Amino acid sequence: MTHSESPLPAAEPAPSAPRGGLDTETLDLPGWKHIYSGKVRDLYVPADESITERIGQECVLVVASDRISAYDHVLASEIPDKGRILTQLSLWWFEQLGVEHHVLASTVDAGVPAAVEGRAMICKKLDMFPVECIARGYLTGSGLEEYRQSRTVCSIPLPEGLVDGSRLEEAIFTPSAKAEVGEHDENITYDAVVGIVGEDIAARLRELTLEIYTKAEEIARGRGIILADTKVEFGFDVATGVITLGDEVLTPDSSRFWDAATYEPGKAQPSYDKQYVRDWLTSAESGWDKSSDVAPPALPADVVARTRSRYVEAYEKLTGRTFA
After folding, report:
1. Could you give the CA distance from residue 19 to residue 105 in angstroms, rounded to a whole number?
2. For helices 199-221 and 190-197, what crossing angle results, to 10°?
3. 27, 58, 211, 257: which could form a disulfide with 125 (CB 3.0–4.6 Å)?
4. 314/245 Cα distance (integer angstroms)
5. Is there a contact between 117 and 108 (Cβ–Cβ < 8 Å)?
6. pTM score
7. What is the pLDDT, as a whole number, of residue 153?
């Protein structure tokens, strides 16, 4: 299917669209106009035609903030350097995967504004599919909850006797439907994906997702990290119509990483992500009820520091680089 034949609306706002998403403080970036803020990223489009001419096609500047979200809330506290860590890790993974992706440029010399150096990427403008593409190689989280009730995950039958952290014989594709900011994504079946995007595209999204997971799982395992599951997103390249990997990829915000040295099926595994944040928010110390409509409280300094430390550790163990 070519781009012109795509039945899907563009998920990213057009360049003329008003500011949308979260009501966040945005940056004044010369030559760029803010159009949208998600939970942790802000999008800008060229306000100066010379930028588009220099890049050679329609593009969007994706800026990763230090915001952090949990339980469908964006917290008042930020995690220092989080935007840079996740951007640099995504860029590293894009280099490893060998699949069509959306990054056009990531350096100041190539056009990224100096004010957001290290945490921004100039990317192809994509018409995003309204589907979260999730691959699971291990049973845990919401998949474990469904398995305990029905021995399935997203209606995919699984063997008896699995426990929290069990490795699956083969990775499975367990998509979810994208929700608006502040809402919770909903697990859906593969047949539901077919109903949303059509049979050919659904098959390609599943194929690409499992290909990415399989390759990344092998790379991570070689570095002492287990990739339990991951979420990736795809869209049509506006210029070519090619299905293209977008958003961030294989970061602690989009994936569940475990330390292979301490991995033990049958219990919850410590992970390289927002674990400290979630644990504190649901503790008696926070005094917050996640089922309420009340916003979560600010995070204590030690929770912020430990969370940052886990992000840095994941980056350094996976890439073999020192985060400066």
Report:
1. 24
2. 130
3. 58
4. 22
5. yes
6. 0.89
7. 94
